[in-house]
């Protein structure tokens, strides 16, 4: 065979091989199309209903079995699945496809065919890293669904799981919240593995930083029950989202048994859950308490449950738990169980012999107290319902009330004698049964003392309680120390309240309780007046006196008794305030404050001694005296407190003051004649109070004075003697106290001031004037070091936002409907404006002041100044201008032109000012007219602003000049960040050499000004659009640097997946 024949044969063979290959590819393509068609048909049928999934899973399995190879099936399967990655909305059909695909993948893995699962997971991992957010969302959704459905015995290679874990770790930080949710859900399957401890650390970190409530909820459901996670999970009971708080109690119920939690954590969970403001959350906490802790851990024994809560320490939690279970009906009450079980009668010849008493545990005592209180409340409610209804319904309510009263009678002691014996036995048992004794004392309010014998027995018992001396102990140095707070009867306010409630139930006649207590006081005061009593006897006598003064309703009820009020003051209270023992001084000062509240006008002796104790006394005495003085000022008025010391100088006290008098506490004698408000104002600046109880916020002088000044300022309309010129100084002090770093740990003070700031501007228009005058402008004020100026800027920025919120608070209505009807028939807008506050106290005045502050910054600015101006601009756009304030609107538009001359290089500030200008133009009734310079200066004068309006700056145009930007090379083309930065620097240099100005003359006619404005707007429209687009592009590039931009983008992304 010749060479040409051989070449011809080889050529023919290559052609035949190519034809066979093409035929094979055509057959393969045809088979793949048929395979995709069958898979797509199954998908179409599966998306209609979940009921068809089981049958369609079998059909899809048969398609896989008939396929030439598993990889060919996987390729066709992924090809058919691809359109799902373009569906943004979570429609029901799309969700059915996701569940169907996940179920099929898990079914194949269970049957041993893990190759398809691995191919599908690899395909989804590639999609999870796509730039398209919808593709990432669908991929993470299916990965999480597959992982959660996959059985534990499924054989999947470790490499695949490693890839899944690493990919989901990246997606946990995705900017779309739904993607983060499914990524956390996927990682929850691996969080319990010891080798994947970094997953738990990642979830704990994300829990504290996550902004989306749904993601936080998913993280909580994924966390394992460990000591490290329990605290973080319980901290989420304070989450702002009720869905997250509800999830917390669901997690605790399923993962944390009762015995695995400490007593503090148990009580904290119940306290927050049962007292939650959301009914959904409180019901979830009740379900945890009832279904898990009460039924499973305590076997429906309420006393056993109370033992887990340490009711002696957390009494209010124990009461809340019992009330919740009783109202829910979880505790079944029987007439066989009662307090009578603890009272065993002894048969003797003497009928007055006390019965044998079995002492109660704390859990039993609080259980019976809450049960009796519940039955009494329920009986009273049913009785009230029966009284307001008729017929069968009234009879039914009356029967229920009778049943509850009968059950209550069976539970309570049979007689008052038995009750007194029961309580006395617990009191005599010592300090270990003090809690049970107090609970039993509270039961006395539910007994019947209608007969004289019962009142006599109970009255004698009360006399013994009042005469019972204070408990004390001897410390290591041999000094006697009183147990308790040293102020109340028994050393405990709760004990004193329990004795008071029993006394009010026994002595119901007018003046009877005062007579009984004053008889005891006169007896206890004898050794004190004779100066033979020790400090314990002094404190005991003053504690009983304080109990009387705190509960007496009128001063005349004290007159004509065993000891007269004047004698009580001169022989007991004033000498006690001068006693050598500090505890005696403290309780005496408290009684002096209570005594002054009962007087018609505060007496000179009381006020003088309180001022001496406040100025010269140690820290505990000064704090108590300060509280007493503030109470007197709130009750009688600051002027009456000052008149008590200087009754002849009333005209001098009523003179208008422009500032507070500076006081020096080192020279205490010179401060005795100072006015009350001067003392408080100077007390805030004093740093040597020497608070000895720093852990107790109620004993810190700054907190006491700040709370008192807030109350006085809030009720300033009732105290006309306080000059209005002092209101801004007081408000400034409170704002400084609120934002001060020194008071950051005073949480109670912060809470009180936050409530004050919320209500203060809503009570009166005069309060808004005070708020407006508090604008802490920096420009023109004395400067200082860089740190001082930085703190001033920070304070001004915070205060500006704070003041805008206060200015936006609406005023409470002060006129009735009749007065409003008689005010005229004008428009509602004019009526509201005429009766409302003036410009000085409206938010328009605050806006002009902030704008003048911004316009005052000229020349080259530092980075800190630019940040400060940008923050003020963001605050400025929050202020709303009322259409009735046309002069203020035109003045503001004129000031905007000054602002743009100063901040036109600041991109963020330009955006804020542009929004402000557009809103002002929309509310201006005559935008083509300019505000006259004389009118502008008049408004500035009312606002006490010394600002020179430049006549050369246009007044009518509200067009904000945009930063010139070079046009883009093509429509829709995107620049790189580096190219955009180079162009910005180049254009900035061009702006410095040739600044942009608006060529409109201020003195031209109205028509010329309008025509030039229109021409300018038309010429710059293109540049404005380009500049705006460029700003938006830069914002996208700098999304990590701008919180607002990041938040907006996240919100826009999340809305598409609802």
Describe the protein in words.
This protein has 1058 residues and is mainly alpha-helical. It is built from 46 helices and four strands. It has a two-stranded antiparallel sheet with strand order 1-2. A two-stranded antiparallel ribbon has the order 3-4. Helix 1 runs antiparallel to helix 2, helix 2 (53-66) packs across helix 4 and helix 4 packs across helix 6. The two termini are 77 Å apart. Mean pLDDT is 79; it is low at 777-783, 814-836 and 951-1058.
Task: From the structure above, extract its key features.
1058 residues; mainly alpha; two-stranded antiparallel sheet; two-stranded antiparallel ribbon; flat; disordered C terminus
Mean pLDDT: 79
Distinct helical segment count: 46
Secondary structure class reads mainly alpha
What portion of residues belong to β-strands? under 5%
Q: Helicity range of the residues? A: 55-70%
Strand order of the largest sheet: 1-2
Number of β-strand runs: 4
Quick gist of this model?
Residues 540-880 form the Nuclear condensin complex subunit 3 C-terminal domain. With 1058 residues, this protein is mainly α.
Tell me the layout of helices and strands:
Layout: H1 3-46, H2 53-66, H3 70-81, H4 92-110, H5 114-128, H6 133-149, H7 158-171, H8 177-187, H9 197-209, H10 213-222, H11 227-235, H12 242-255, H13 263-274, H14 279-297, H15 302-307, H16 315-328, E1 343-344, E2 356-357, H17 362-388, H18 391-411, H19 416-428, H20 434-443, H21 452-467, E3 472-474, E4 480-482, H22 493-506, H23 512-529, H24 535-551, H25 565-577, H26 582-598, H27 604-616, H28 619-636, H29 638-645, H30 650-653, H31 676-685, H32 701-714, H33 727-739, H34 747-763, H35 765-772, H36 786-808, H37 817-822, H38 828-835, H39 843-855, H40 863-876, H41 886-903, H42 907-923, H43 933-942, H44 977-993, H45 1006-1037, H46 1043-1055
Antiparallel strand pairs: 1-2, 3-4
Helix pairs in contact: 1-2, 1-3, 2-4, 3-5, 4-5, 4-6, 5-6, 5-7, 6-8, 7-8, 8-10, 9-10, 10-12, 12-14, 13-14, 13-16, 16-17, 17-18, 17-20, 19-20, 19-21, 20-22, 21-22, 23-24, 24-26, 25-26, 26-27, 26-28, 27-28, 28-29, 28-32, 31-32, 32-33, 32-34, 34-35, 36-40, 39-40, 39-41, 40-42, 41-42
């Amino acid at each position: 065979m010749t060479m040409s024949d051989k070449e011809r044969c080889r050529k023919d063979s290559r052609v035949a091989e190519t034809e066979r290959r093409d035929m094979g590819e055509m057959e393969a393509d045809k088979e793949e199309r048929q395979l995709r068609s069958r898979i797509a048909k199954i998908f179409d049928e599966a998306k209609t209903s979940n009921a068809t999934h089981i049958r369609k899973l079998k059909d899809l399995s048969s398609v896989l079995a008939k396929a030439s190879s598993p990889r060919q099936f996987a390729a066709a399967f992924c090809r058919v699945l691809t359109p799902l990655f373009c569906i943004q909305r979570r429609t029901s059909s799309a969700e059915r496809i996701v569940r169907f695909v996940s179920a099929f993948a898990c079914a194949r893995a269970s049957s041993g065919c893990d190759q398809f699962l691995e191919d599908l997971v690899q395909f989804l991992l590639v999609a999870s890293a796509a730039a398209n957010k919808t593709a990432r969302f669908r991929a993470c959704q299916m990965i999480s669904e597959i992982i959660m459905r996959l059985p534990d015995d499924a054989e999947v290679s470790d490499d695949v799981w490693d890839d899944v874990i690493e990919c989901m770790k990246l997606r946990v930080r995705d900017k779309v919240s739904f993607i983060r949710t499914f990524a956390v859900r996927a990682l929850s399957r691996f969080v319990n593995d010891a080798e994947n401890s970094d997953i738990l650390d990642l979830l704990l970190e994300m829990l504290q930083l996550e902004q989306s409530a749904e993601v936080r909820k998913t993280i909580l459901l994924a966390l394992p029950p460990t000591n490290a996670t329990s605290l973080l999970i319980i901290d989420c009971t304070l989450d702002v989202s009720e869905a997250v708080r509800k999830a917390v109690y669901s997690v605790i119920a399923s993962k944390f048994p009762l015995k695995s939690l400490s007593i503090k954590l148990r009580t904290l969970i119940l306290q927050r859950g049962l007292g939650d403001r959301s009914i959904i959350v409180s019901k979830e906490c009740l379900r945890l308490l009832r279904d898990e802790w009460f039924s499973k851990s305590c076997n429906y024994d309420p006393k056993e449950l109370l033992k887990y809560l340490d009711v002696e320490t957390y009494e209010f939690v124990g009461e809340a738990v019992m009330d919740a279970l009783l109202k829910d009906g979880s505790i079944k009450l029987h007439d066989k169980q009662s307090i009578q079980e603890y009272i065993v009668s002894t048969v003797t010849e003497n009928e007055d012999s006390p019965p044998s008493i079995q002492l109660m545990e704390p859990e039993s005592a609080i259980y019976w107290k809450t049960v009796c209180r519940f039955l009494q409340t329920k009986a009273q409610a049913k009785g009230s319902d029966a009284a307001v209804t008729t017929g069968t319904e009234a009879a039914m309510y009356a029967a229920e009330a009778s049943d509850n009263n009968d059950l209550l009678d069976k539970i309570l002691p049979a007689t008052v004698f038995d009750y007194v014996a029961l309580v006395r036995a617990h009191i005599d048992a010592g300090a270990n049964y003090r809690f049970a004794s107090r609970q039993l004392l509270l039961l006395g309010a539910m007994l019947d003392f209608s007969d004289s014998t019962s009142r006599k027995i109970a009255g004698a018992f009360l006399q013994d309680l009042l005469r019972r001396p204070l408990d004390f102990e001897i410390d290591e140095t041999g000094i006697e120390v009183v147990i308790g707070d040293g102020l109340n009867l028994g050393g405990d306010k709760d004990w004193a309240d329990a004795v008071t409630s029993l006394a009010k139930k026994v002595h119901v006649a007018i003046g009877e309780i005062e007579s009984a207590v004053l008889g005891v006081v006169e007896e206890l005061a004898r050794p004190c007046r004779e100066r033979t009593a020790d400090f314990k006897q002094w404190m005991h006598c003053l504690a009983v006196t304080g109990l009387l003064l705190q509960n007496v309703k009128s001063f005349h009820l004290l007159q004509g008794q065993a000891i007269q009020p004047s004698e009580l003051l001169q022989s007991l209270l004033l000498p006690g305030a001068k006693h050598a023992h500090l505890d005696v001084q403290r309780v005496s000062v408290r009684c002096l404050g209570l005594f002054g509240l009962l007087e018609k006008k505060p007496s000179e002796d009381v006020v003088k001694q309180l001022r001496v104790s406040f100025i010269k006394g140690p820290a505990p005495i000064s704090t108590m005296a300060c509280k007493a003085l503030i109470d007197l000022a709130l009750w009688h008025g600051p002027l009456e407190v000052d008149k008590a010391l200087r009754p002849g100088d009333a005209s001098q006290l009523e003179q208008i003051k422009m500032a507070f008098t500076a006081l020096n506490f080192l020279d205490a004698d010179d401060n005795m004649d100072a006015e009350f408000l001067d003392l408080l104002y100077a007390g805030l600046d004093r740093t040597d109070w020497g608070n000895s109880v720093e852990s107790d916020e109620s004993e810190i002088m700054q907190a006491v004075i700040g709370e008192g000044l807030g109350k006085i300022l809030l009720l300033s309309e009732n105290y006309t003697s306080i000059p209005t010129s002092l209101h801004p100084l007081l408000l400034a002090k409170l704002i400084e106290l609120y934002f001060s770093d020194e008071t950051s740990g005073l949480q109670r003070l912060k809470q009180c001031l936050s409530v004050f700031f919320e209500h203060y501007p809503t009570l009166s228009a005069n309060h808004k004037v005070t708020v407006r005058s508090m604008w802490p402008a920096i420009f023109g004020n004395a400067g200082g070091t860089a740190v001082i100026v930085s703190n001033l800027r920070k304070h001004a920025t915070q205060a500006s936002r704070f003041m805008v919120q206060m200015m936006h608070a609406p005023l409470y209505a002060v006129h009735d409907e009749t007065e409003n009807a008689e005010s005229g028939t004008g428009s509602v807008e004019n009526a509201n404006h005429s009766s409302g506050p003036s410009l000085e106290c409206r938010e328009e005045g605050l806006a002009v002041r902030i704008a003048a502050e911004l316009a005052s910054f000229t020349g080259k600015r530092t980075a800190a100044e630019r940040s400060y101006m940008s923050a003020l601009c963001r605050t400025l756009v929050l202020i709303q201008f009322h259409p009735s304030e046309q002069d203020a609107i035109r003045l503001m538009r004129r000031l905007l032109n000054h602002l743009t001359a100063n901040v036109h290089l600041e991109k963020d500030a330009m955006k804020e000012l542009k929004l402000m200008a557009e809103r002002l133009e929309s509310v201006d009734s005559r935008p083509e007219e300019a505000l006259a310079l004389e009118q502008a200066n008049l408004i500035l004068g009312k606002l006490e602003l010394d600002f020179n309006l430049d006549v050369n700056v246009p007044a009518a145009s509200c067009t904000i000049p945009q930063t010139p930007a070079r046009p883009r090379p093509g429509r829709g083309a995107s620049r790189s960040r580096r190219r955009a930065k180079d162009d910005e620097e180049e254009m900035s240099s061009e702006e410095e050499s040739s600044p942009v100005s608006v060529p409109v003359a201020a003195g031209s006619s109205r028509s010329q000004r309008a025509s030039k404005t229109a021409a300018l707007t038309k010429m710059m429209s293109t540049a404005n659009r380009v500049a705006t687009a460029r700003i938006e592009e830069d914002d996208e590039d700098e999304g990590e640097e701008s919180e607002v931009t990041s938040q907006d983008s996240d919100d826009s992304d999340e809305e598409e997946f609802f």
